[in-house]
Amino acid sequence: MLKPSFKDLLKSSFRSILKNKSRTILTSLGIIIGVTSVILLTSIGNGLKSYVTDQFDALGANSVFISPGKVFNDDGGFSQNSFAAAMVTSFTQKDLNLLNRKLKNSVVMPVNVAYADVKSDKAIKKMIEIDGSTEEYGKSNNVVPSAGNGRWFTNEENNKKTPVVVLGYKIAETLFPSSSAVGKKVIIKGKTLKVIGVVDQKGSSFGGPSVDDAVYAPFSIVSDLAGNENINTFVVRAPTKDAIESTKKEISKVMLERYDKDAFSVFDSSQLLSSINSIISVLTIALTGIAAISLVVGGVGIMNIMLVSVTERTREIGLRKAIGAYPRAILIQFLIEAIILSCFGGLVGVILGGLGTLAINSFFPAKITISSVILAFGVSSAVGIIFGVAPARKASKLSPIEALRYE
Amino acid sequence: MTKSLPKNNSNVILELKNVTKTYATGTNCFTALDNVSLKIHQGEFVSITGPSGSGKSTLMHIIGLLDNPTSGEVLLNGKDISKLKEHQLAQIRNVNLGFVFQQFNLLAKTSALENVLLPLLYSDVPKNQRQEIGLNFLKKVGLEDKIKNTPAQLSGGQQQRVAIARALVNNPQIVLADEPTGNLDSKSGADIMEFFHQLNEKEGRTIILVTHDMDLARQAKRTIVIKDGKVMEGKNA
Questions:
Q1: May I ask the CATH architecture of the domain B7-233?
Q2: Residue A227, Cβ neighbours under 10 Å: how many?
């Protein structure tokens, strides 16, 4: 039987910790910082992941993309030479016609991209991405202006080469700061185009190019601006989410009739999403690993203080032994003290990490997870046990005679 | 705590038989106790005295079961305990012995009552009885109004009284006092000695007083003088 009982040991450990409040806080500080940073970093990683997932859902869940070159390598990551390949190849009107003919249940949308300066009578935006596509593209990519902000272009306008554009929110703000852009004129490469709509504000995905910075025009207009009828990408909307895989197979079959298998890629947003998520995961794990180093440093801090404490309390240990404490009772008492210190640090760290996550969440996506809390708390108490053993053993091995004589 | 003892030794609690203790100091061997034999009887007030370096501290450590002899036997209630393991000795110290030290050795920032209760933490005494036992002993040493005071809030004499209450709280067979008045002024020291006399005479407690002070030692009913690791006089009363 354990004498004193675990409860008594816990009580006496708590008492001796409470006798030194400032030392307790300083000792736990290392663990507090470690746990806080581990929780914050995993929260940010998780927040990023769910944010990216939401963005992709908004992009249109049923979309399949056909892109020149090899975008993904065989492991599911991004292929190294995708950009080089993309410059070499583009698709043609023949491909569009063929796809339209073979994919009866899907909507095939060609996308052409041109880069040019966009001018209004008040301002100029240089080297803007101008995406040319069809009527269906607006709905499929969730960029149709909402009521009151104009409208998306029609296939008729595309066929007739009507000079109209739809502006991204930020572009419209810059070019027409004082009034609504709808109905105004912009000049691109010497061509005058009428603004028929402004896309709602979407926000940027972490500072990269976004819908807010884009300009949309009918495919035929962008072909004129670019000086060619090349098609950079196809967006194919499958009839249902379940049909995505079969649509992808069909597309591959059609495209293989005309191209080598490495010359094009067929992918859907979930593939893109999982690639991006795996990058975020690796980053999160790496950063969390670095933060975890501070947990170890915190553990060393606890060991340090406990060793000092054993020396400081040598006489106490000697007395306890003289009046009947057997070595293991002393060992457990000091071990409990170390564990209390690190658990206290872990608890404060979890609270600070949770509050920090809430604070960050107001301007950056962050999401706390139970698993990160359990992990951080578990690691911190494990650190307490591991680094508490050495001082506790030292205390339990003290000879009562030597300890009582200690000045 | 009384156990059935062999008849011929009916009132001997502690017996040392040919106890020798040597310490290795580098290449030399230092003999602190040289073939010491002595008996302590139930209800005795014995003092152990001798000049410093005589071996009286070593003798006290062996009597107090804080140390094992190099050779010889230590019999407690007729049982040889010189070969027991550390945790077994701790148990016996807890049940059979009470210590009073020169430095008091009270836990700092801890109330008088909690200090007194400390040995019970390592004993089989049921939890719900501990508080009452502790209060009784504090009352006995005349500190019932100071139970919440920490050592820093008590005088030297009061601190030593708390230490005595702590030594008595387990109702030990032997109270072992190591220079109990060494850190006290003469008045408080005399009070403490008077208290030991009362414990011995009124309650029949066995008290072993270790001191270098011959005058103090003479107050005991029997004095064991030790010199150069050997018992010079008072071996058996």
A1: 3-Layer(aba) Sandwich (3.40)
A2: 9
Q: What is the pLDDT of residues A52-82, one digit of tens each?
A: 887 776 666 678 888 887 776 666 666 665 5
Q: Where are the alpha helices (DSSP H) in chain B?
A: 56-63, 86-96, 112-121, 127-140, 156-168, 186-203, 214-218
Size of interface A-B (CB pairs under 8 A): 63
**Burial letters for A347-384: b for 16+ Cβ neighbours within 10 Å, e otherwise?**
bbbbebbbebbeeeeeeebbbbeeebbebbbebbbebb
Interface contact B45, partner A, CB < 8 A:
no
Q: Looking at beta carbons, which residues of chain A come within 8 Å of B166?
A: 323
Q: How far is A320 from chain B (nearest CA, A)?
A: 8
DSSP for residue A231: B
C-alpha to C-alpha distances, A211 to A142, A164, A208, A343, A398, nearest whole angstrom: 10, 18, 10, 47, 71
Backbone angles phi, psi at B46, to 5 degrees: -110, 140
Instruction: Name the residue among A293, A373, A378 with its Cα closest to residue A46.
Output: A373
User: What is the model's pLDDT at position B211?
Assistant: 93
Cβ pair B66:A328 closer than 8 A: no
Contact list, A18 vs chain B (CB under 8 Å): none
Flag whether residue A319 sits within 8 Å of chain B, measured between CB atoms.
Answer: yes
- The answer to whether B160 touches B180, Cβ cutoff 8 Å, is yes
Token pair listed for A88? 């070499």
**If DSSP codes are grouped into helix, strand and coil, which group holds residue A359?**
helix
Q: Return the closest-CA partner of residue B34 out of B176, B231, B203.
A: B231
Residue type at position B66: L
Mean pLDDT of B147-159: 94
| A313 vs B: CB within 8 A | no
The tens digit of pLDDT for each residue in A157-167 reads 999 999 999 99
Q: Minimal Cα–Cα distance from B58 to chain A, Å? A: 10
**Tokens representing A75?**
């492991």
| C-beta separation of A125 from A168 below 8 A | no
- Token couple for A19: 């006798």
Say how far apart CA B142 and CA B139 lie, in whole Å.
5
Cβ contact B109–A327 (<8 Å): no
Residues 6+ apart with CB under 8 A from B134: B113, B116, B117, B120, B165, B169
Whole-angstrom distance between the N-terminal and C-terminal Cα of chain B? Answer: 24
pLDDT recorded at residue A288: 86
In a 10 Å sphere around its CB, with 0-12 CB exposed, 13-18 middle and 19+ buried, how is residue B197 labelled? middle
pLDDT in tens, A302-334: 899 889 989 988 999 999 999 999 999 999 999
B145 Cβ under 8 Å from any chain A Cβ: no
The nearest CA of chain B is from the CA of A323 a distance in Å of 5
Compute and round to an integer the Cα radius of gyration of chain B: 18
Taken in order B50, B51, B54, B60, is the CA torsion positive or negative? positive
Task: Name every chain A residue with its beta carbon within 8 A of the beta carbon of B99.
Answer: 322-323
Angstrom distances, CA of residue B93 to CA of A325, B65, B122, B189:
9, 7, 10, 26
**Domain residue ranges of chain B, discontinuous segments joined by +:** 7-233
Q: Measuring CA to CA, how many Å separate A54 from each of A44, A218, A276?
A: 15, 28, 13
Which token pair is A184? 């105004």
Interface test with A, best of B21, B62, B86 (most A CBs within 10 A): B86
ipTM of the predicted structure?
A: 0.90
